Every structure is written in C-alpha cells, then in structure tokens.
Amino acid sequence: MTDAKATNLAGREEVIGKNYPVILERLLLLMVVIVFILGYSEVSDWSGEGFVGLLTTWCIFPCLLLFSAEMLGRMIQTINRN
Q1: Which of 61, 62, 79, 64 shows the shortest CA–CA distance to 24?
Q2: Does any domain span residue 31?
Q3: CA–CA distance from 60 to each of 10, 18, 28, 46 (Å)?
Q4: Considering the domain boundaries, does residue 51 fall inside one?
Q5: Does any domain span residue 25?
Q6: pLDDT tens-digit profile of 55-82?
Q7: How many domains, in total, are found in the chain?
Q8: pLDDT surpassing 80 at residue 17
C-alpha cells in the first residue's frame, strides 16, 4: 500500500471546523410545519375565499414560513462559523 496523503479534488488543505448543529434546523423545520398547521385557518379566514385566498393560504403563507426558516438557519450557520 502507498502512503498517499488524502486531499480533496482541488488539491487544497482543509481544516475540520466545529460540528454543525443539524438538530436546530430540524427543529426549526418542525416548528414551521406546526405553525402552518395551527395558522392555516387564520390565514384562510384573513385572505377570504376565491383564487386569492387559495393562493395566499397554500402558496404565499408556506413560502413565507420556509423563507423565514431558511433565514434563521443561515443565522445559525453564521453564528457557528469558525
């Protein structure tokens, strides 16, 4: 066997950093699902009936929640960066 040094495809040295708290992002996603389930009726009542109500309840509200979760996840990444 050879004693070849393990490198990445770019051939650069990499330093192993802190462990990323994946559990926090999973909890954040679970909170988004719970907020959607609990807030669905409120958003549906607020937006009314018809196409706009369906669009708001089923598209805009979930996308807004997922966007918020993504931004909070990025803040968590920034805080845990070396």
Answers
A1: 79
A2: no
A3: 41, 35, 19, 13
A4: yes
A5: no
A6: 999 999 999 999 999 999 999 888 887 6
A7: 1
A8: no
Q: Residue 10: inside a domain, yes or no?
A: no
Domain that holds residue 57: 37-79
3-class DSSP state for residue 18? coil
Burial of 34 (0-12, 13-18, 19+ CB in 10 A): exposed
CA distance 37 to 9: 44
d(CA 44, CA 50): 10
Alpha carbons 53 and 61: distance in angstroms, whole number: 10
Q: Is the pTM of this model over 0.90?
A: no
Residue 16's SS3 state is coil
DSSP for residue 11: -
